[in-house]
Design goal:
This protein is α+β, with helices and mostly antiparallel strands. Helices cover about 40% and strands about 25% of the residues. Strands 2-1-7-4-6-5-3 form a 7-stranded antiparallel beta sheet. Strand 1 and strand 2 form a beta hairpin.
Amino acid sequence: KMDGVLERFRETVDPARRRLGIQTIGYWTAPGLTNGGTFAYLLGAESQEALEAQEKAFSADPQFKAGFAENSQKYGKTLDAILSIPLAVDPTATLDLTPADKPRAFDLRLYTIAPGKLEAFRDRWRDHAIPIYARHGLKCLGWWVAAKPDAQGHDQFICLLAAENIEGIQKAIAEFHADPDWIRAERETEREGKLRLGVTAHKLLPAAFSQLR
């Protein structure tokens, strides 16, 4: 049902958000191996409270309601599940959400952080991972910390990276893990245990109507 989701966001959701002054930084898709695929988007606002107020107005918007009803009648159920993660900008983070001249591929990662290791993981990401990834052609566009722990009580660290294409992302990741500087940094920062418990990664391509491409 990805075509139905894209049609709904292109013709109903995004126009309504623009009209209501809601900032959508980007829309992306990824094919699924066990389902119909992943559709992701990133919203921005001055505060979580402001975003919640905007989303409330959006949900009540008559034009959105009409468009959503029409799309649902045409395509039926389109979503298996929705995961929403409120994000807080890390004060030490750098963001580069400027659209590129041509579409890129993106790597969205959700790291589950070991107890008490969030600051150490953030510092390693900022001081070591980002420059090493950049050296291999994978650029970090920004990183955030989930405003609330996950269901198991763990902190989550979310980052967005970009390269020319999916193959470029995969190549950069392989070169990163073989890089002597990274091997040394990982060893030195994990003398007292692992900093992360796991990671979920999505290789994404921008939708045609995405601002960030």
